[in-house]
Amino acid sequence: MNALETRIAHLSDVHMLDIRPGRSRSNCSMRHRFLSFGRPLDGTQRGRKLAQALAAAWQVGAARVVVSGDLTEIGAQGEFESLAEVLHESPFSPERITLVPGNHDLYTSRDGWRQALEGPLSSFAPTSAREPGRVIECAGYNLFPVDVTFHQAVTRSAGLIQAEALSMLERRASDSALANKPLVIVQHHPPFVRKTRALHWLDGLIGAARLMALLERFRHLFVLHGHLHAVVNRVVGRGAARVLGATAVVEDSDHPRVRIFDAFDGRLEAAGLVMH
Q: What is the pTM of this model?
């Protein structure tokens, strides 16, 4: 097996705006201004940042790209359409791209993600987060994309991993046929329990404790997440780092930052942070 066949590029937190003609900054809502506080409301710039990150991933030989949520700013239809346009123009074919939603992607509608997968993102639906329990078989590893979103006000940014998804994950992790390769969970929120109950309600992942228990039980489980806009390398138990977070594409400068992972010998290992 060629080593590059197992290489994963991990991107996150694109926060795409509508970049279609006529959708200028003046058309952005108060929700956009609240959520984008401190960041320019420049859709063209955000699209360019994503395109640069995808090009960097291609240049280092990634076989697959995973984008771990907050794909859009408020989950508006035009934002998903603009996202799809940039993805389709990238060097990666749709079957080599895995998408999961983040809390921002359901701020407009509780059905926003489903509608996006049935509409502008339909080409990416077979390899992205849909029904719980789907496993995407790849060279050297398996992906388990999870939707941890629910519709909430823009003043809250929590996630929720459903009991059904956790049960399916436990079943998949217990399957001996899948145990010889890393089983890589892709979701938006990290599986951490926040320090206080109030903070966990506001910004944490409901169900995180049960997910962490599964990570401690099954050493071939890994998590790729976003939400924190930072590189995360969290060791689980006495083993290697298995909870792994990425920086935010929306916060990139002229040089994209792309986390690269290689899968081999039953492990997923960081191969660096590419900055081109």
A: 0.94
